[in-house]
Design goal:
The protein is an alpha+beta fold and about 270 residues long. The protein folds into two domains: about 5-140, Luciferase, domain 3, CATH 2.30.38; about 145-265, ANL, C-terminal domain (GMP Synthetase, Chain A, domain 3), CATH 3.30.300.30. The chain contains six helices and 13 strands. The strands form four sheets. A four-stranded mixed sheet has the order 1-2-3-4, covered by helices on one side. Strands 5-6-7-8 form a four-stranded antiparallel sheet. A three-stranded mixed sheet has the order 11-12-13, with helices on both faces. A hairpin with a 5-residue loop joins strand 7 (about 120-130) and strand 8. It is globular.
């Protein structure tokens, strides 16, 4: 630890409570960075080798030189500061990024370039604040529609993760016949914390309602022993959603522990 100078966090979105915990217990500067397999290197980060910026909890700091990152609305128009939308990179992409999909260039066009002509669409949503700091809030697929209100599950996860008893969590949109979708929270507790007669679940539900409001319709939190993840640490939210909706799913080859899916299935019965 004495020789460690900087801690780089990757995989899941670095929520403010996790950042605070790592800084408190290590005393080291923490660098959040956002990138994708398709890009090969960081789209946004705190570029300590060039110039260090102040850390803003929840932000991957600023776009890396070479990436013209913009936030677009559903019509493909630029959003204003602090306005959430689709995170896109204006073409051309810098060196090292994907140029096609192997033997299927049409898929490359349809999957990344067609939604907003002239832009690479990352599939993530977020916003850029008035200082140019990028906040990645999660996959666009993880923005759920509750009675016509578009809500970010990433925001709910940040609120749940801020509770002293929560080690990690995932929020997905489960099918609801009346509202279309309703948020469902899966929570892993820290060692030494337990729920008695559902008291902790009730506290977590109230915490989300207090900070977002009744519009969130957050009525269910389920405590689980672990969350299904890939070997690189990404939570398999899509499969969790399929399990919650009673749909069939395919176990991905990248999963770290296939038995974790069976645990989730039992928890959601």
């Amino acid at each position: 630890m004495e020789k460690l100078r900087t801690i780089f966090m990757a995989g899941e979105r670095l929520d403010p409570p996790t950042l605070e915990w790592v800084e408190l217990h290590t005393g080291k500067p923490v660098v959040d960075h956002w990138w994708q397999t398709e890009t090969g290197w960081a789209i946004a980060t705190n570029p300590i080798g060039l110039e260090s910026f102040v850390t803003k909890p929840g932000s991957a700091t600023k776009p890396t030189p070479g990436f013209d990152v913009q936030i677009l609305n559903e019509s493909g128009q630029p959003c204003g500061a602090n306005e959430q939308g689709f995170i896109a990179v204006k073409l051309p992409m810098p060196p090292s990024c994907l140029a096609t999909v192997w033997r299927n260039h049409d898929r490359f066009d349809s999957g990344y370039l067609q939604q907003f002509p002239g832009y690479y669409v990352s599939g993530d949503g977020g916003y850029i604040d008035e200082d140019g700091f990028l906040f990645v809030m999660g996959r666009i697929d993880d923005v759920i529609n509750v009675s016509g209100h578009r809500l970010s599950t990433g925001e709910m996860e940040e609120i749940l993760g801020g509770h002293e008893a929560v080690a990690e969590c995932a929020v997905i949109g489960a099918y609801d016949e009346l509202k279309g979708q309703v948020p469902l929270g899966l929570v892993v507790l820290k060692d030494g914390y337990f729920s008695t007669d559902g008291d902790l679940e009730k506290a977590l539900i109230q915490k989300v309602r207090d900070e977002i409001g009744p519009v969130a319709c957050f009525h269910k939190a389920v405590i689980v022993d672990r969350l299904p993840k890939t070997r690189s640490g990404k939570i398999l939210r899509r499969i969790i959603r399929q399990i919650a909706d009673g749909e069939s799913y395919t176990v991905p080859s990248t999963i770290d522990d296939p038995a974790s899916l069976e645990d989730i299935s039992k928890a959601l019965v």
